[in-house]
Amino acid sequence: MNEPSPDMPQGLPPREVPPLRAEPAERSGARHARELERHLGWLDSFTGVALGVLAAASGIYTYLGVRTLLDDTGAWTTFAALSYSIAVSVGIFVFWSYMMRLLPAMRSAASRIGLLCSMALGSLAIIAMSSWLNAAALAGAAAVEQHLAETVQDYQASLERAHANAIAGQSLARDVARVRQSFGDLSEQEATGDLSGFAGRGAVFRVLTQKAAELGALEEQIAAQDAPLSAAFAEGNAILSRMRALTVEAGPVEQRSVRFSEEAVRLAGIVAQLRQLNVAPLVARAAQDLAESVVLPELDGRSDLARSSQASTIDSVLSLLRQRAETLRGAAAEVEALPPAEETVYTPISAADAVIRYAGNFVPSWAGAIAIDLLPAVLVFIVMVTQAAIRAGRGEGGAEETMTVAELRAALAAARLLQEVEPQRDPRSP
Predict the structure, then answer these.
(1) Strands (E) located in 38-97
(2) What backbone torsions phi and psi does residue 20 show, to the nearest 5 degrees?
(3) How far, in Å, CA of 221 to CA of 239, rounded?
(4) Rounded distance between C-alpha atoms, residue 13 and residue 2, angstroms
């Protein structure tokens, strides 16, 4: 029982203070839903403008990307590129407007999944018709320069391989010199009689000097390749230097590509020349001829014993020739078995093709090109989450449970207005 206050008038019952009650969760959720609706209403006031700006920006970069694909610079080409970019901008704006309005309003799982699949398909279409062209506009020149740099590396590897093979062929000169020296020493021994037992310059001596002369001529041919080989390699390096300079030189990349192509043709000729300067095939053929093409002189011994000794010595010389020839042939085969220089051909490439081929090197540009087209998808998901929160806050109650004070006043005013305009019913009427 509440004690009466001494200040209260006598005879009046004491006032009971009603206990504070917690606000129902439904009313709190309704107020939260109305707050979210006000936010969405304010955001809708400029969402269309934002979509238009994104679509226009994508269209501009699409226009730049289309121009890189078209060689002609006439009015019709400009009109065609402009028409395509406008179509892309309109398509992006309409597509994301549809998604932003319809997808958040879907309530069933089947309808949401259907529209999500449609959004995924539309996003792929946008990437196919716009994003790769945007990437070409953002990183097309850099991608073409990357293609030039990769081509320079390929040409450098081909030049170095051809030069290394040619140098390996030049090293065969030492093998040839060693064989020539061995035949020269044998001829000196024959001249003093230490070989066949009969001193003089007879048939055996002439066979030995004949093969020594052949090997000496081969050695001179190999030595004659040193100067052209060094000159070709130096010229190839000079061309490579000019090609490297073109990859980083200032100015339009299209003009640099034309000059780069001219230098590439010259360098390809240098690589072919280095292949021809390789003497390994020459040494292999000479080794084969060394044993097979022998002009045997007439035995000139004064006695049968001398002639028999000459014949026996010549047979030994021929056997030695075959051994030395096999040695030279094996050395030449090792050089010929070295990996050949790869055929490198420079193929001009457009900016759009280059940005696709070297996409891994331009991930930030690709990300920016795709993001400018697919950023509205994030807005769609934001609106979806917000609409779901609004529906959850309203609950399943009727409209009278979520009416605001202003809405209630408007409803009462409408009711009074209807009562005033309602015709007076006749009390005698049933």
Answers:
(1) none
(2) -70, 135
(3) 28
(4) 10
> No. of H helices and E strands in the chain?
13, 0
Cα(98)–Cα(114) distance, rounded to whole angstroms? 14
Alpha-carbon distance of 117 to 105, in angstroms, equals 16
Alpha helices in 277-341 (DSSP H): 280-292, 304-336
Report the alpha-carbon distance of residue 387 to residue 301 in Å, rounded: 119
- Whole-angstrom Cα distance, residue 23 to residue 327? 105
CA torsion, ordered 132, 134, 136, 142, to nearest 10 deg: -130
Give the global pTM. Answer: 0.66
Exposed, middle or buried, 116 (CB in 10 Å: 0-12/13-18/19+)? middle
Residue ranges per domain, the chain?
Answer: 25-138+364-397, 149-349
* Spatial distance between the Cα atoms of 202 and 189, rounded to a whole number of angstroms: 12
Q: Return per-residue pLDDT of the chain as tens, 430 residues.
A: 444 444 444 444 455 544 444 455 556 666 777 787 788 888 888 888 999 999 999 889 888 888 877 766 778 888 888 899 999 999 999 999 999 888 888 888 888 899 999 999 999 999 888 888 888 888 888 888 889 999 999 999 999 999 999 998 888 888 888 888 777 777 776 666 655 555 555 666 677 777 778 888 888 888 888 899 999 999 999 999 999 998 888 878 888 888 999 999 999 999 999 998 888 888 888 887 776 665 555 555 555 666 666 666 666 767 777 787 788 888 888 888 888 888 888 888 888 788 888 888 888 888 888 888 998 999 999 988 888 888 877 765 555 555 666 777 777 887 787 777 665 555 554 4
* Distances 392 to 260, 398, 406 between C-alpha atoms, Å: 65, 14, 22
